[in-house]
Design brief:
The complex is a heterodimer. By secondary structure, chain A is an all-alpha fold. Chain A is about 60% helix and about 0% strand. Chain A starts with 7 loop residues before the first helix and ends in an 8-residue tail after the last helix. Chain B has eight helices and no strands. Classes of the chains: A mainly alpha, B mainly alpha.
Chain lengths: ~100, ~200
Amino acid sequence: MSTRERSEGSALALREAAQWLERVNTTESTTQDFADWQCWLAQSSAHREAFALVEEVWCAAGELHPANWPSPDDIADDTYDGSVSVEIWRSLDPRERRP
Amino acid sequence: MGDYNDTSDPSDKTSLVSGSPRAAVVEQLFREHNLSLVRFLSARLHSEQEARDVAQEAYVRLLRMESPEAVSYLRAFLFKTAANIAIDRLRSRRSEARALEAELHAQHTGVPSLERSVAAAEELQMLAAYVDELPPRCRQVFLLRRLHDLSAAEISCRLDIPERTVRHYVVEAIVYCRRRMDGVNHHREGAPVRSPGRKRQT
């Protein structure tokens, strides 16, 4: 998959891959989770590529030292509620982001 | 499958720690899960041989571990332990490759390897900038999950937000950073652009 032709479609593929990463990357994961994940990976090369892409972010983010943590004020002013992607949230007028 | 080919005779495994209930439990885990464990590791390491090595190391760690004998707990721990070993290996493999590449590069051009590590550092700096662009709560959740290695349940308790939201924020953070890394356009605060609509995304 060329990194130049990303579309809404690939955002969906990445989101699905990230959901799988979150599901299998915990101590609570069950054997069934791993089996389901393997089935999903086996379904298409697009799935495998998307998973490799999100895993790369995950691995690289582990080296973010020191991390820049948000201040309590930042968090108090946060208007993001997860109902849209971060990409869309950022594209909105800042005034629209107020609660 | 090397050492793990022979799963038919459990006595070989239990003899590692003779008579210990732990050994019996680990043996049971091995019989039930070795195939999925090796698959799981192969997908990460891209090497079946190394996957088997890591799986073996994980079983050995499990045998030495002092903790409850509950199978459900050990099963989760087995995968977690194996994943950690795999990550360590990937990390050292990556830095080895990077060092080797830098060395070769320096030999051919006379340019010191410093330039290479600068490139890697710049890449990390870019990622740091993308993480900074995340909404504050989303960024906090992502960093807790990634750098403090907290589970979604632990973050949920600590921040008093639903576990489902924690997972959702982690996913959104990863997707956003990935798309930024791939050069997807974004809109700065000074130049707001209308979104096509407030779509609900799950």
